[in-house]
Amino acid sequence: MKASVIIPAYNSKERLYYNLISLNNQDCDLNVFEVIVVDNGSKDDTLEMLENFEAKFAFKFVRLEKNRGIARGRNEGIRRAVGDILIFHDSDMIANRDFITRHLKNHEEKNIVVCGIPWKRIFTFYYKELDSSIQNYLGKTGTELDEKSNITDKYPLIDVESIIDESYINKSFDLDAEFMRGLKEILKNNNEELKDYRLPWRFFITNNASVERNRVIEVGMFDESIVGYGFEDYDLGIRLYKSGSKFIFDKNILNVHQEHPTNINIVEGRENINYICKKYNNIYFLDVLLVCISGTTSIKEYDFNELCKDINNMMVVSYFRPLLDVFLELLQTCRRRYFIEGVTDISRVMPTVDIDINKLIMEVNILRDVFGIKYFTEAMLALIKDIYNVYY
Are 328 and 283 in contact (CB under 8 A)? Predict the structure, then answer.
């Protein structure tokens, strides 16, 4: 068995069915992969659908009676996997016909993490909660409903045949969100490659990614302490990258997300940011904090790659370590200001260590003028301005 496709599911019966249809339709020998679905305590008829699904591939599914988070669900799938390569594929995705083939092709080289396109979207079912968005989508795509007078929640907007002949792709679109625009800009600036990009784990999004099973086990699998929405994939990607895996982005691996009422919870997201920033409270992981709290500082996000190059170069010189420690504390101060619940006056949240600002500014200017370290200098001065309201 070459690959194990890991799919956690929660109350996604209709979308998961379309997902499995797309995996039945792969262009490769269907004996080269297995599919493992972990039902995270769904309240709908997911289990019944799984029991009756006629899979053409090796198929396993397990039900967890209580939903303890998507990280726990994925780990349950990993424990049951026998494939050399794990392909992460969420329940609400539709895989292109060559999805498995392209992922496996990239793993001819060892210790590779493969990331595919994460921004393709489609409305496959009508949901009352998304009525205005769906109606706008239908108008743009020229799609007409067959029974306009009898539209119910989860009314299908595409059929199985469109998945098999792949005509559904014609109704897909790119998600126009700041996060996705940022990823596209990174690829544009790096010639659609990640080899000179210092934060490639940002592309490790587990609706379209693959990695050797042994590597995932070596770095500790998914962190089950991350229960709510978000960052459990980044967390694994960080550990894979920092322990030596090579990341590649393949723009030809297409996987389309089926839009549905969101399960994003702002409180959970904030809790996960705090957890990640505390977990990686070390100068070796400054890139992680930069990404987690981006938007709360004056540091220019488009400079992150060059900034991380500066940080990596400074890391090997003991003389620079105290400045990196201060930079870490200032980033954590920004995190405490904006992501700790109950903070009403951010000006009262200050660094937990004494910092001589005048001396710090002098040392930072030496970095720029003597050592020619541009991006770290600019980032440190931006943090000083944000936290101390000091202009220079």
Answer: yes
